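S1.2 Input.
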Amino acid sequence: MRQILEGFYEVAADAFERELTGALNEFEQQAYNNAEQARSSNIQLRWLETLRTVRRTRPDLVPRFLQGVEAQLAAIREPATTEAERATQRNMAELSLVEASEMDESTTLAEIGSRIEMRHSLPIYLLGQRFGVLAGKPAFDAEALPVGPQTLCKILRVAAANLEISSEHRVLLYRLFERQMLAEYGRLLEALNNHLIKHGVLPGLQYMPFRSPAAPQARAASRPADAKPVEPPDARTTAQTPAHGRSTGQMPAYGRTTGQPPAMAREGGEAEAPLPWLLPGEAAAWAPAAPSASPVQLPEFDQIRDLLTSRRSMLSKLSGGGAQAAPSGPVHQPAPQEVQHALRLLQPSTATSVNMGGRIVPRTVAHLKQDLLAQLRRSAPAGESPVLPDEDNDTFDLVGMLFDELVKDVRPSSQASTLLTKLQVPLLRVALSDKRFFNDSHHPARQMLNAVAETGAYWLGDDDADGALVGKMQGLVDRTLRDFDGDMSLFESLLKDLSSHLQTIARKAEVAERRHVEAARGKERLAQARDRAADAVKEITEGSELPVFTHTLLNQAWTDVMALTSLRHGEDSPAWTQHLETAKKLVNLAKPGAAAAEAEAPALQKEVAESLRQVGYHEAESDAIAKRLIAPATEAAVDDAASRTELLMRMKSANRLGTTEKPAKPKPEQLTPEVLARVAQIKTLAFGTWFEFVTNAQGDRVRRRLSWYSPVSGTAMFVNHRGQKIGDQSIEHLAIQMANGQARLVEEEAKVSLLDRAWGAVMKTLSGFGGSRLKEAVA
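S1.3 Output.
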């Protein structure tokens, strides 16, 4: 046994040395980047100090880590500590407070170990069985395995403690180590298992997935009455592809039990976080259905197949063709495992576009089917042509129709369209092996497809400005292509990851929208205050023949002064009364022969200058204007006409306080009875109502949120899903768009997911070709 373990250690040590060296190199690069991008000098100094320390202490990390692995291998025959003994030790141990940094490290390492273990559960299980033989004990579980993920994380923590860096920076190292492990750990486990097999340790060990007793019944219920029983797959094939059966009872995670909803709620009924990819700000649209709510009723797969058959028959009659010709010569009908294996080869490398007659077009499921047949032809017996079973052909057609409907809601050649095309292969593999994909609206793969479609359709704008969201979605799809091999829990994990990211974006969108609304309301109040100030000034100046200079000042700058006073202090305040009195004095001073009292002039001049500075005038300008108003005769002696004209032009061109361009009002003849009815309807809508607008002659649509409208000015403000302001328009123009079909309210359909709407369109198309019995079945 010593020779076996020594060889085992050599294989593992080479791999761990590469992974740790790669993680340290990446850590140094990341530390340098963080120091360069630091927001403060203190943070920069911390990262630079960490970089110097790691370069000094890194030679000790790999030897200490390998010593830990060697110690674990040397102790495999030592008596294992039972759970009862561990509980006794915990009870006897002294209780103490734990630093938050230590908790962060422990949590991070536990999560890393769990993720790696979940991804490589099968080879870890086989290695545990073989170590049980080596140690003369029961099979090792993942936590007790000397090279198991949890054990390696514990060893790494002990070894990294000697790097003499902060806990926060060690967590970064753990994350980088995880990245290296995810790429190499699978190959290492395979090499370690092969090493033990080579030395005769359970060479014939194979994995046989557990089949629940309900699975055969579920399969029998889903088959037609005249179908032949499905032969159980060969044990060796099953060990290699444990989740590729065509039955509905073998899929891991989601497919372990029949009749249960996917794990979208925690124990005790606590719902998962809401999924915010449809309409930000409307929590009811995000939340998953309550456990007591009746699920969406969808037709069974056999009923859908009947509709599909009726559609093919009708289309064949309309086109004047007969039944589809059978292939000439011998045929080979591939087993489910062969189909899954061929699709698995196509999954990571399939292009998203094809060349059709010299024209590049997006790839469809029909193109993918041809690629699959070409792949199957390579492994088919000589002289035989591969032909898919009728059930698989129907599955391809249905998935193709579903994707054709989904891409109608996203822009062609966009990021979202490309991501949906990439998901065709994984979703086909799910649909081929688990027919509940078609009739269970809570299926994890179905929910993830809906998440990608809705995020692309609603969150990614024309400019795809949110690079972080685009990167997140690309990473999600790339991980699906790289890692999916039948395990439904992968979709649940990706779904939660995307949901968390979108929740963060939604919160930012709500904050941005709230700021726009507050700004719009502030402008509205300012406009109302300016109107009241203008009325007050007009009442004072009405009937008076004023010089152009004084008239311009009172109707522009002084109106802004009074509007600002109204907002700050109110119209019942002494400040408002004082400014009114000042305006009256300025009117009197503008009369021929009038002059301010010598004692009163300096105070009045100072008040006018300071008030003008409050609304944006520079000190020199405000002083010059005040002198011109209060002592025109004195100023005339030292000022010429050119300077007076210059001051007047400056007042006329000065920016008014809070001036905004109001949307144009429609012509009276456009306000038809239907438009007026729409205006009345809009005025009853709550803020936050969603509209869908036609953006071009091709009929492309975009959703915008009615964030706020003014009952005074009749101006409506719209924002997009990110809370960014799109623009303002009058309620009347919005009503005209609604009457012309260029805009519509998004009401009940907003509560239905994009995928369910697409699937509903597929069912509507198919039911048009079926008889009354079939229509009732899918109604």
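S1.4 Remarks. The chain is about 60% helix and 5% strand.
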